[in-house]
Structure to design on (971 residues):
């Protein structure tokens, strides 16, 4: 059994590491500068530390600052239920719901980042994020629950164990794709970056500088990294694989998911939220429900052992 | 050099740049953007995100005042530099970079201004106080006393498209925004993110006598417009590709002309062929309402039509006769009425707006 | 603390939440604020049910079901409250309970 | 079993979280700003979720946090829509009958507290299950299925009636008086080809 502080430290390190990997991959895809761009996230972080925090006219400072600090904390908390090896820092009987709840709490945080500074673009970004959040919450929930359904448990370690014969992605492709898409939506990244879009001068990020910008940006990439690790655990069999030890396999799968996510996400333009939201309600919700139905029938037929 | 100094220099080695181009400096802006792309210096989206503010050309009095206000919101460390068109561009950027590190080494107690965002820059500094985002009281009904707080007027209410009478905010966009024609100011009311009562005006722009003379092929101009649209539409990788193609098109390498043409055509067909972009922008700014004269450059009348048009020109296709294509501001403001903020930004980015040829004193737009 | 004292303390907290919520629901003028008061009352109910489950009958799921029902009640209350607010506002430009009572005039 | 059911740190956590919950519950009606009131309410809910977590009701705790956060975030939008002065830039009071309401609230609290402290609570019956989430799930799908059926129908009815109450447009507005329009006439078209 790990000591508590070791475990916390490991989760924080794993979260930051995965976030850094994601940020580096993202920067390479974005700038096309090759491997040299890999250090850019570190450079940006240092630059943010050098920068002054700024304020705006009549902001709600308490809520604003709290929300900025909450984003990375929530991302790390969602990392706490991601299985590393065959254990998690926090093994509850409802890990999957925990992961989802942290993303829901992110709503409140991002909304407040948009609201706090009392500025037009920022507020519009907050509105966009809420609309996006409402639309993608249900598909995400159904996607996560589908994995739980296949395993017959909400515990992530049970979900990984249930895939010893067959990876869930084979029978749950829709849930897998929706999970990754929703993760991008909750981190307002890639095609779902409308809340921080260039058309609203950076939206929720438009008034952030210095440490606060660093916190929010770090939270976003940590969430994306944690989601990639979670996707590997929930749908790609976690650490299972031949020859190599489990954690190595898990890391490889996580890196693969990261690469695919970045590669696809940076190939697309931002989807305008008013259109994407209709797609989420009218297509993704029924699609994920059907997916859950199919998996439920497979469970009844005994397909998952 | 001590370690901290070295780290500081490294950290600021890729400063985020806010380019402010006084009208008429397009060609020079292209060179600057190419140089920034070469150095991988990212473009800033807002003052909060800015390290370096580079001012191109000679801004007129009103634009200069707006720049001053914007500059007051940039957090330390920061550096602002006027870039001269006839100077050595890389040398000037190197100098700016050094000056930025110097600024970081000095610890100045200057606080950035407590203004809200650059979206709030009105044509006159007095207007800034009128804009006020979310904190909206209902002046129009119940026992509320109206008035203003912290110099900010409370919001008013007005009928909206859902039949609810909700708050409206007075907003002003411009004159400096990413992907926005510098010097253009949009004033209007906003409910949620829907703009009404839109009025457009140019601030005085440039003092430069060579103002408005852009020596470039229509193809390169179209590629520039495409880069702007893609930036606003949120497709940074394609925007960078368009900027690269623009550089090659405006360069003088006759021996590589065929290659340049192929590259330009590739960028154009990538944008044209993007289903995601088409799905996102189709129907925005549609002129179904019969506002646009026939024969306008925008075949389908919407942003996607505009994108296709610019792609055709940028790919070197036959230059579509653009009879009367630069739209007047009045025409544009009618088109923007009732559109969402994002849609308005896309429509403006797609339009080839007519700039006043000489200095114009804008009358007060009645905010 | 003995178990009984702990239970009583937790229930007292629940009672305080109910009291504060009642005060809010009765005193506030804005419909949204009234709803917040009601939510606090239900919050107290949830806490009480959870404590009762843990300290009294952990072998039965009934108290857990009560928490679930409390959550559902809150969701329904929210949804219907906002729907009613929009309907009233659409008709009368009113979002305050005092003014809504004029409706039967 | 000579030990108490809750360990000492857990008791401390429960008491502190309870105090936070009540304190932020009071703050809801004290702060000027609607934004702060909404998020004070959220803090109150999250504190209760923390207590439920300490009481080993993990699923309920997490679901409470999830649902209440979403509710509060949506409430924030409504508050901006409908509230005067949501940021509290101008301090103002919007209460009626404050004294009477306070009296009612206080009397309710005192009555409940007296009841709580004078009752001789029975001792714990039975043992908690190994997996509380499973206990709840089996109840929902088994012995208490009827409750969940009613709740499900109730929620469905809420979705329908809420939408009908809130919307200002019916199908005649969208498809024309004779319902013959092939494409609905909406203020914003949305992303599906319809």
């Amino acid at each position: 059994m790990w000591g508590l502080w070791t475990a916390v430290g490991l989760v924080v390190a794993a979260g930051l590491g995965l976030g850094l990997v994601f940020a580096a991959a993202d920067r390479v895809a974005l700038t096309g500068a090759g491997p040299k761009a890999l250090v850019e996230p570190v450079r940006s972080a240092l630059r943010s530390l050098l920068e002054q925090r700024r304020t705006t006219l009549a902001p709600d400072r308490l809520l604003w600052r709290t929300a900025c600090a909450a984003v990375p904390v929530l991302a790390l908390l969602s990392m706490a239920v991601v299985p590393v090896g065959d254990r998690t820092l926090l093994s509850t009987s409802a890990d999957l719901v925990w992961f989802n709840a942290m993303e829901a709490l992110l709503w409140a945080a991002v909304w407040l980042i948009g609201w706090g500074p009392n500025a037009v673009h920022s507020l519009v970004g907050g509105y966009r994020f809420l609309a996006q959040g409402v639309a993608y919450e249900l598909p995400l929930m159904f996607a996560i629950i589908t994995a739980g359904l296949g395993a017959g448990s909400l515990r992530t370690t049970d979900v990984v164990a249930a895939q010893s014969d067959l990876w869930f992605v084979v029978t749950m492709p829709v849930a897998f794709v929706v999970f990754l898409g929703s993760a991008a939506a909750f981190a307002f990244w890639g095609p779902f970056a409308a809340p921080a879009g260039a058309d609203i001068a950076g939206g929720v990020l438009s008034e952030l500088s210095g440490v606060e910008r660093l916190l929010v940006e770090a939270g976003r990439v940590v969430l994306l990294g944690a989601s990639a690790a979670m996707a590997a655990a929930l749908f790609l069999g976690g650490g299972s694989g031949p020859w190599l030890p489990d954690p190595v396999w898990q890391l490889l799968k996580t890196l693969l998911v990261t690469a695919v996510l970045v590669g696809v996400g940076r190939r697309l333009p931002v989807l305008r939220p008013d259109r994407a939201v209709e797609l989420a309600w009218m297509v993704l919700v029924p699609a994920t429900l059907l997916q859950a139905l199919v998996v439920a029938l497979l469970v009844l037929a005994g397909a998952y052992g | 050099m001590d370690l901290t100094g070295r780290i500081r220099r490294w950290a600021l080695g890729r400063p985020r740049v806010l380019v402010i181009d006084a009208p008429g400096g397009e060609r020079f802006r292209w060179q600057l953007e190419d140089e920034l792309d070469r150095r991988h210096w990212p473009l800033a989206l807002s003052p909060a995100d800015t390290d370096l503010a580079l001012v191109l050309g000679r801004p007129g009095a009103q634009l200069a005042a707006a720049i001053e206000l914007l500059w007051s919101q940039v957090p330390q460390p920061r550096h602002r530099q006027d870039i001269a068109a006839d100077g050595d561009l890389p040398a000037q950027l190197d100098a700016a970079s050094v000056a930025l590190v110097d600024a970081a080494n000095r610890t100045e107690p200057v606080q950035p201004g407590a203004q809200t965002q650059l979206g709030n820059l009105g044509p006159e500094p007095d207007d800034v106080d009128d804009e006020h985002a979310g904190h909206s009281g209902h002046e129009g009904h119940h026992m509320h006393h109206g008035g203003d707080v912290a110099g900010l007027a409370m919001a008013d209410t007005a009928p909206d498209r859902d039949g609810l009478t909700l708050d409206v905010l007075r907003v002003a966009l411009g004159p400096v925004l990413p992907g926005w024609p510098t010097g253009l100011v949009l004033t209007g009311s906003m409910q949620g993110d829907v703009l009404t009562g839109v009025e457009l005006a140019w601030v005085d722009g440039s003092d430069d006598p060579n103002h408005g003379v852009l020596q470039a092929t229509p193809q390169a101009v179209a590629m520039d417009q495409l880069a702007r649209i893609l930036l606003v539409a949120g497709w940074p990788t394609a925007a960078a590709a368009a900027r690269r193609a623009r550089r090659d098109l405006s360069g003088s390498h006759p021996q590589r002309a065929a290659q340049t043409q192929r590259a330009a055509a590739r960028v154009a067909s990538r944008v044209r062929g993007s289903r995601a972009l088409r799905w996102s922008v189709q129907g925005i700014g549609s002129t179904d309402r019969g506002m646009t004269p026939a024969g306008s450059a925008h075949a389908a009348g919407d942003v996607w039509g505009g994108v296709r048009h610019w792609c055709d020109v940028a790919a070197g296709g036959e230059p579509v006769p653009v009879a009367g294509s630069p739209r007047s501001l009045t025409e544009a403001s009618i088109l923007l009425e009732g559109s969402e903020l994002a849609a308005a930004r896309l429509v403006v980015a797609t339009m080839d707006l007519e700039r006043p040829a000489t200095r114009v004193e804008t009358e007060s737009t009645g905010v | 603390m003995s178990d009984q004292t702990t239970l009583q303390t937790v229930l007292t907290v629940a009672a305080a939440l109910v009291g504060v919520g009642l005060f809010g629901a009765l005193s506030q003028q804005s419909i949204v604020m009234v709803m917040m008061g009601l939510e606090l009352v239900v919050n107290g109910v949830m806490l009480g049910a959870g404590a009762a489950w843990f300290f009294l009958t952990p072998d039965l799921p009934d108290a857990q079901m009560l928490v679930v029902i409390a959550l559902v009640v809150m969701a329904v209350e929210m949804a219907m409250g906002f729907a009613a607010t929009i309907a009233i506002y659409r008709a009368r430009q009113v979002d305050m309970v005092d003014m809504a009572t004029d409706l039967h005039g | 079993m000579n030990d108490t059911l809750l360990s000492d740190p857990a008791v401390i956590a429960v008491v502190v979280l309870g105090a936070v919950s009540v304190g932020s519950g009071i703050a809801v009606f004290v702060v000027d700003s609607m934004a702060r009131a909404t998020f004070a309410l959220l803090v109150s809910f999250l504190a209760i979720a923390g207590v439920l977590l300490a009481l080993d009701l993990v699923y309920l705790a997490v679901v409470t946090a999830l649902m209440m956060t979403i509710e509060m975030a949506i409430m924030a939008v409504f508050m901006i829509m409908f509230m005067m002065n949501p940021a509290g830039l101008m301090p103002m009071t919007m209460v009626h009958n404050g004294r009477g309401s306070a009296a009612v609230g206080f009397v309710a609290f005192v009555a409940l507290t007296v009841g709580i402290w004078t009752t001789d609570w029975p001792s714990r019956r039975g043992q908690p299950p190994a997996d509380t989430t499973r206990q709840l799930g089996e109840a929902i799908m088994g012995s208490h299925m009827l409750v969940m059926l009613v709740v499900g129908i109730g929620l469905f009815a809420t979705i329908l009636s809420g939408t009908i109450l809130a919307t200002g447009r019916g199908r005649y507005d969208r498809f024309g008086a004779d319902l013959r329009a092939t494409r609905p006439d909406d203020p914003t078209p949305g992303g599906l080809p319809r």
Q: What stands out?
A: The first helix of chain B runs from residue 3 to 11. Chain B touches chain C at residues 141-142, 163-165 (CB under 8 Å). The two ends of chain B are 53 Å apart (CA to CA).
